[in-house]
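Q: Structure tokens for this one, please.
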Amino acid sequence: MSRSQPFPNPLADPHQRAEQAAELLERYGKGERVFKAVALGDIDWAGVTLAFAKMPQADLQGASLPYADLSRIDWSEAELSFANLTGSNLRGAILKAANLNQAHLPFSKLLGAYLVGASLIRTDLVGANLMAANLSGAQMQEANLTQANLRGANLQGCFLRRANFSQASLSQANLRGSDLMACNLIAANLQEANLREANLREANLRGCNLRGSNLREARLREAYYDDTTLFPLGFDPIKRGLRCR
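A: Here is the predicted structure, written as tokens:
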């Protein structure tokens, strides 16, 4: 079978979807890696291996892929909203402009993943490892990144309003020009992060470590902090319009 042959779109019948999913996995097992027009929403692929597969524009809305090996998969522009990817290995995955709205990715591994322009609105990323991932321009409003590892990640120009970064590691992350309005950054580590021109209005910075971070031209009015917040040397929070709570 040709490596570039389109994968047939499934019909609404769950049995037919399961058969087509099994066929795709069989083709993968025989060495095929390119799958076009995949549409297998709601399929159960727990623990599956699809490393290095190329499935751009795949429709896997609501699919269940917990603890799957998806390293370096190409899911560019894929539909993955409401998908369950709990604990999955997505190291180096290509998710450019993918829709991951309200997907579940707690404790997933996304080290070095490419998520430029992706949509992760209200996505569960609790404890996820996004170290050195590229999320520039991503839509991440109200995403939950509690205790996530974003060390060295690129979040330039991201839309992050009301996202939860409590206890997350964002050291050396690039957040230049990002919209962090009303974000929860309680006890987050932002050491040496680039927050130049970022919007941090109304953000919760209590217990946040901002030592060595770049806050030039950042909008901080009405953000709040407490006596455990660590600011860069010489930074005056009152002059910048922050409130102590």
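A few notes: The CA atoms of residues 35 and 55 lie 5 Å apart. The chain is about 5% helix and 0% strand.
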